[in-house]
Amino acid sequence: MGMTMTQKILAAGAGLEKVVPGQLIKTKLSLVLGNDITTPVAINEFEKNGFDGVFDKSKIAMVMDHFVPNKDIKAAQQTQQCRCFACKYDIDNYYDVGDMGIEHALLPEKGLVAPGDIVIGADSHTCTYGALGAFSTGVGSTDMAAGMATGEAWFKVPEAIKFNLTGKLKPMVSGKDVILFIIGKIGVDGALYKSMEFTGEGVSQLSIDDRLCISNMAIEAGAKNGIFEVDEQTLAYVNERVNRPFKVYKADDDAEYERVINLDLGVIEPTVACPHLPENTKDASALGDVRIDQVVIGSCTNGRISDLKAAADILRGKHIAKGIRCIVIPATQKIYKEAIKEGYIDVFIDAGCAVSTPTCGPCLGGYMGILAENEVAVATTNRNFLGRMGHITSKIYLASPATAAASALTGVITDPRSI
Amino acid sequence: MDAQGRVHKYGNNIDTDVIIPARYLNTADHGELAKHCMEDIDTEFVNKVSQGDIMVGGANFGCGSSREHAPIAIKASGIDCVIAKSFARIFYRNAINIGLAILECPEASEKIDDGDIVKIDFDTGIIYNETKAEQYQAQPFPDFIKDIIKSNGLLNSIKNK
Predict the structure, then answer these.
(1) What's the CA gap between A418 and A413, in Å, rounded?
(2) What would the mean pLDDT of B122-148 be, rounded to a whole number?
(3) I need a labelling partner for A44 at 20 to 30 A (CA). Which of A19, A76, A350, B81 fits?
(4) Contact B17 A386 (CB under 8 A)
(5) Mean pLDDT computed over A64-86
(6) How far is CA A369 from the centre of its chain?
(7) Cβ–Cβ < 8 Å for A45, B155
(8) Inter-chain contact A387–B21, Cβ cutoff 8 Å?
(9) Distance CA B99, CA B87 (A)
(10) What is the ipTM of this complex?
(11) pLDDT tens, A33-70?
(12) Which of B10, B17, B24, B26 to mutate to test the interface with A (most CBs of A within 10 A)?
């Protein structure tokens, strides 16, 4: 019996000919990532246990993005702790105010992730890099500390669900609708402990931004990772950015999957996840009259240039509804500059939106858009858990940038095709 | 290795945002985090919990963010072990890595009620419900994981080698 794409990457990282699901292995790491919330816990553990060196200063990335630019004194202390550690160990890829972006948009953009890599990050959305054919998964701060010290991590080899994609997306439907549709079908623990492997002729119809968005939310189905087969688009993307050799892995023809799901991309409608779980999905057109107070367009899920373009195309020449706050957050400085060049930032400001420097801020209820009692938000973020964006009586609906922008114009959740 | 204590019972899909809301993540202090453990779904938890108590959840316990602050808050609040029908994978490895014992046992998750007194033998995976005089079998940890928990966390176990 052959191996899945994930199993082949893990076997190579462990120096083994073959691995099987359930096997506990130790692998070498290509990159260890942390942010301003998880890195301080990792540093505390690292220092408490007396480690005094990192395995490779070029293979550690620290991105200050969650509460940065700092929201309060305690957050500032935590960032300072990361800054001092990065300075002490001369960490090559430390990103702070001015050059930082939201980590999972920044790392692919900087060429720090390549196909075949094994990446751990002390952030659950580290699964994003599966879009580029890497094995990439979220861990906690202790794993990050151990990874920084030893360059290794332990894993249980996962089973996989194969998603065989066919067809082509309808207009105004994007990667976000695809992943919300999938989570709606399989549930928030539908892929628990497993790999989601995306393959089939439909993959070529999805842009790299769409794939990054889909892999990003694999964790919302409980998955260990969400990985795409590498194609010409992937190679064009990484060859422009990655300055080191890498190896492309492909699943064996006789690989064993726990389940195969055939998905025609053409059946997917603009999709919204209702409170308080990403699996509570409905077609945007079927929601009825859901009044909103705030719209957030950004995050590691949907803060990329194609997301801003989708929103700008809907908002151009119009103004958002009275009483609605719309916050737009380009995910990196490069994306921000491109959005200025393309005129999207003018569109947003003319439409009455606030535009912010890159930050995770509102997505996790940190700052930059916290909800009051009973308020309702439409967000292009990834989680709509109870109280996630503010008061415990507030509500979050997850949607694509197009649906979010259309909703900002009307003040109710709106199918973007009706604008 | 064993544990014995009173049960605090919760439902399915208990996410890390309710275990420890992000508004408290501007500190890594264990005691501070423990003060706010579970507060968005159970404001009384921090007042009710005693050292050595047990937490029981349903399916997909600990889903969401990778914040290690979640198992840290639970452990620092006094909980010795979490039993659930299933765990979200990052929470599972975080709990093990910081030395918080966790057991997957669908039967125990269903039959144990809030307030029951439960005794756990980690070597055999046997969970004994003293209140109901019932016994449930969880899968015991593999040696690799037992080693991490006995060393009180991953980094200690690496250092000890």
Answers:
(1) 11
(2) 91
(3) B81
(4) yes
(5) 98
(6) 19
(7) yes
(8) yes
(9) 16
(10) 0.95
(11) 999 999 999 999 999 999 999 999 999 999 999 999 99
(12) B26
